[in-house]
Amino acid sequence: MYYPKSQISTNLYTSGGELENAFTGENYKGYYFKTSNGSYQSGKTPQSPGSTDLILQRNGNTFTSPNLIKDATLLSLDAPITSPSAAGILNKPIYIDGPYFNISSTDYLSKDLSSPVNSVIYPTEKDYNNNRFQRYLLRKTNNAIFKEVNKQTYDLYVKKDQTVQYDLYYPFKFLWTIAGKSKNKVANINYNILKLTEKRTKAFGLLKYFKNRLTEYYKIVGIQENLETDGTEYLVSTTNLPYKGKYHIHPTKGAMVGATHVEVKHDFLKPIKPLNIEITGSNNNDLSPTINRGSFGGGGGGY
User: Fold this and answer.
1) What's the whole-model pTM score?
2) What pLDDT is recorded for position 303?
3) Is 224 helix (H, G, I), strand (E, B) or coil?
4) Which of 8, 93, 193, 209 lies at a CB distance of 3.0 to 4.6 Å from 3, suitable for a disulfide?
């Protein structure tokens, strides 16, 4: 992405304790750059490979480094997106839209505008190799109604194309984590992404929209080896007895007995109680991932 020189500060450096990874919450130490809208990214310049979004660290309700930037922002995924202003609408011809009588500046009676429809977008193998993929959504300006769309539709709403209902919906996007060694870690990363995106875009209700879907499209990348369980997590599939000791997780066969995967038949392990990650909370601002557990069955062995 190109930034005019007047809108970016490059080759900045932090020794830690000031910035953190916007997705994982990990403390960041190293070079970064800052844009005029108050966003931060790792790397010396926007052209630095592997650049990721950063946010200011917080200590309770206070930024740990108030001098880093005066107009501290909590998110740097993109420039803030705002819904159409009421003032702008009232300066245009007014039309009534639908049974709820929403004020709109577009004459829907004389124009053939396409209503947004949900699209199912699946990650590619390249996305899995990168551990995440881009998701594009629309939110209705006056209600917590969301539509997931493809990039082409998203671009039309960004450009306020006359063929779409840009007065009724506004677009936003975010990166969704889909691969990793820990399902719970992926769930927590996606929860943080949703929470930050909801604040940045005013897309209130986004966390609830993704309720029970924090690990959507998740899959294990590679074989996880040299893991250890204390006997409270798995049962041996052939005996139904608790298993304690070394184990590994195969990307297609699941958990198996033994520290490493071998070409000799060995037992499968089945979770005593599988994880069911949900979002609960009294309102959109205090939602946090919780884990419910239920029964699980299975059996057999493999190579």
Assistant:
1) 0.45
2) 64
3) strand
4) 8
